[in-house]
Amino acid sequence: MSLCLLDEENFHQCCQLLLQQSDELRDGWSWEPIQGTEEGYLRKTALRSVIIDASIKWDQEVSRSDSETHTSCDSGPDQQKQCALAAPSDADIIAGDIDENDEDDGVCAVSAGSSQVLQYEYHIVYSCSYSSPVLYFRACTLEGRSLSLEEVWSSVHPNFRLQLQHSPLNTITQQEHPLLGQPFFMLHPCRTEEFMRPVLQAAQDQHRTVNYILTWLSVVGPLVGLDIPLQYSVQLHHAAPSQTDTPDALLHSLSS
Amino acid sequence: MASDTSEAGTSAADLKLQFAPFSSALEAGFWHQLTQKKLNDYRLDESPKCIRGYYYNGDPVGLPTRLTLEFSAFDVDGPTPARCCPAIGTLYNTNTLDAFKTIDKKSLLEKEAKEIWDAIQSGAALKDQSILSRFILLTFADLKKYHFYYWFCFPALCFSEGIKIVQQPSVLEQVFSAKQIAALQEIYDGLCSKRETTAIPYFLLKYTDDTVQMAPLEDWDTFLTDTKKVTVGVYDPCTLSQHPGWPLRNLLVLLAYRWGSKVDTVEVLCFRDRTLQGSRSIQHSVVFQVKLPELSVNSACPKSVGWEKNPKGAMGPRMVNLSECMDPKRLAESSVDLNLKLMRWRLVPSLDLDKVVSTKCLLLGAGTLGCNVARTLMGWGVRHITFVDNAKISYSNPVRQPLYEFEDCLGGGKSKAMAAVDRLSKIFPGVNAEGHNMSIPMPGHPVNFSQATLSQAQRDVEQLEKLISEHDVVFLLMDTRESRWLPTVIAASKRKLVVNAALGFDTFVVMRHGLKKPSVSQTVSAAADSSPSCSSASSSSSTPASAETSVPGSSLFSNIPGHKLGCYFCNDVVAPGDSTRDRTLDQQCTVSRPGLAMIAGALAVEMMVSILQHTEGGYAVASSSDDRMNEPPTSLGLVPHQIRGFLSRFDNVLPASLAFDKCTACSPIVLDHYEREGFQFLSKVFNSSHSFLEDLTGLTLLHQETQAAEIWDMSDDESI
Question: Is A108 within 8 Å of B59 when comparing Cβ atoms?
Answer without folding.
Answer: no
